[in-house]
Amino acid sequence: MEQTLLQEISTFGRLLGAAFYYAPQAQEVKPILNFFRQPNWIEEWHDLIQADEIKTLIAKGLQQDLDEAYQYLFIGPNSLPAPAWGSVYLDPEAVIFGNSLVELRTFLKIHQIAFSSKENEPEDHFGLMLMLAAYLAENKPELLKEFFTQHLLTWSERYLQLLAEQADYPFYQGLSLIAQQTLQRWKTELALTVPKMQLYF
């Protein structure tokens, strides 16, 4: 596995993962928002399709109340238009803490990966899983293919598709388009075959 690809997964996994996971006012997100405020940030990515559109969405979103957007998309109280947890898509009951989460926890336990999230939150949150991909790239790259094909890419495309439809929240809409293309690039570079799963959301 090429070192440059591992470095890319580490860098973008952490950046995108934190942007999806943490609230905009969190300390972890401040440097990320500053990154997206730089005029040439999009040059960090490889050949993004619709690059101008994505850049416009991010810029427009940064002028809005990101806390309000995050609350609507990730917290509630209303039903979430694009739930960020894998088991919502993979479990027949469309619930968090479903069987796919049990399988992810088994994967983490078998490979002795200590994982802490907020208040016993399920580990299959999209943002957490991107940060986990970064950790694996840095520490256990031999596990990346299994992680992507069995635990993340089975549902992430559907999640990002739903998030990309949220036109009232252009920052996260832009993020979803970046994440879609980034994951597709990793899938291609790693020559991954992802099993077709029945999705329930």
Outline the secondary-structure elements.
Elements: H1 3-21, H2 30-37, H3 51-62, H4 66-75, H5 86-90, H6 99-110, H7 126-139, H8 144-152, H9 156-164, H10 170-189
GO molecular function: signal sequence binding
Protein name: Probable Tat proofreading chaperone DmsD
Function: Required for biogenesis/assembly of DMSO reductase, but not for the interaction of the DmsA signal peptide with the Tat system. May be part of a chaperone cascade complex that facilitates a folding-maturation pathway for the substrate protein.
What does this molecule look like?
With 201 residues, the chain is an all-alpha fold. It has a single domain (1-77, 115-190), classed as TorD-like (Orthogonal Bundle). Helix content is 59%, strand content 0%. It has helices at 3-21, 30-37, 51-62, 66-75, 86-90, 99-110, 126-139, 144-152, 156-164, 170-189. It is globular. The mean pLDDT is 95.
Strand content: under 5%
Give the overall shape, derived from the CA principal axes.
Answer: globular
The tally of strands reads 0
Mean pLDDT: 95
Count of the domains: 1
Distance separating the two termini: 34 Å
What order do the helices and strands follow? Answer: HHHHHHHHHH
* Helical content (DSSP H or I, runs of 4+): 55-70%
Please state the second-level CATH architecture: Orthogonal Bundle
What is the count of helical runs?
10
Keywords: Chaperone
InterPro entries: DmsD-type, DmsD_chaperone, DMSO/NO3_reduct_chaperone, TorD-like_sf, TorD/DmsD_chaperones
Family: Belongs to the TorD/DmsD family. DmsD subfamily.
GO molecular function, one term: signal sequence binding
